[in-house]
Amino acid sequence: SLSVKLDRAFKTLKGQGQITEINIASTIKEIRRALVDADVNYKVAKDVTDKIREEALGRDVLISVSPGQLLTKIVSEELTTLMGETNVPISLEGNPNIILISGLQGSGKTTFTGKLANLMKKQGRTVLLAACDIYRPAAIDQLKVLGEQIGVEVYAEPENKDAVKIAKNAIKFAKDNGKKTLIIDTAGRLAVDEQMMNEISDLKEAVNPAETLFVVDSMTGQDAVNTAATFNERLNFDGVVLTKLDGDTRGGAALSIRKEVEKPIKYISTGEKMDAIDLFHPDRMASRILGMGDVVSLVERAQQNYDEEEARRINKKIRKNQFGFDDFLAQMEQMKKMGSMKDLLGMIPGMGKAIKDIDIDDDSLKPIEAIIKSMTPKERTQPEVLNGTRKQRIAKGSGTSIQEVNQLLKQFEQMRKMMKMMNKSGGKRALANMLG
Ligand code: GDP
Ligand code: MG
Fold first, then answer.
1. Which of 22, 126, 264, 336 would bridge with 88, disulfide CB 3.0–4.6 Å?
2. Is the ipTM of this complex over 0.90?
3. CATH homologous superfamily for 97-280?
């Protein structure tokens, strides 16, 4: 029925206010939990959320966006900053341009070697791959199969057990055959050990690569950070490759590694296929870590569409307890500009499921609009003047019933009361209290 719809629509509108209050404290907690769940180490997660609280208190909250959502946006920005803002490209110096691939066994080195070669080939560079995993004959075959698949030559010496010599011969082969880039695939162990570290650092010293990349499996969580730190101590690598991000891992390792070793993440790997490679984008990883990509875009949309002047005007009215039906109508218009009500609510964390089966029809706002539009300017700013005769006139003019008009008035009154209460508790101080 219409009155149920009215009620629901109003709850929705009021819901904005409630989300505003409740979500601030819980969002901070939620964000910290999300970070830890996503394998960000606890200290880093705490640093981040402390900073966010500071940042949040300095910002004006738009009416059309709940502080919870705005906080999420701030968090996302903070994480992005922590992870380095922009992508850092690999070095293309040297002739040949030598790229050394390091990491534990199973981290995805050989697969990544093929992907990177494929990418560079597409960019018009001539590439040679060197098979320097001397321990497993299967490793050479694996690289050869990938090379064939992408049409890139592979240099190998199956009988030779000296990785340094193979690498040096590969450099000569690259020079003789006009290959501009040489990517060296190496052997790894299942865990960090001294022999592996010696081998890879000898190799690095011998070939003097323009770029040394450390490949790490994002599914290994906290271990990934420790391994990265150990490799970095010995190799002083230039960049990190995060693999297996196609799984359900949230990628918090990216943040912890970046904080711990202070080296940029340059590529991510998202599958076994040769085209499953991407440049690392800190902003996208931030949304992934938060698992709230949609919220970020909601906030962006709101900020784009929301007229700041209008926001300030309405804020002022609320502060002076002068919020009237005209302002209410203006708010509804603003919300409509942002998209459908259900879409908007669905973007709020935890709300998607809750409203899936509820019918939030944008049409349900129409009677409210009609009622307000049937009021005179005086009635809109001073609803107190609405007596029986006036209500009758409005109901008739808007095609609704007197009950519906009464209901809207009652709910509007409640909303004004809530605003008064918020005013009394004082904007920023209230926010500070809620943040704890
Ligand atoms: P390496 O020992 O470091 O050379 O690791 P490999 O390149 O041989 O990869 C080990 C396993 O992980 C193989 O089965 C790969 O197909 C798989 N793999 C590598 N990268 C990815 C990735 O990004 N996503 C998924 N799902 N699997 C991957
Ligand atoms: Mg390998």
1. 264
2. yes
3. P-loop containing nucleotide triphosphate hydrolases (3.40.50.300)
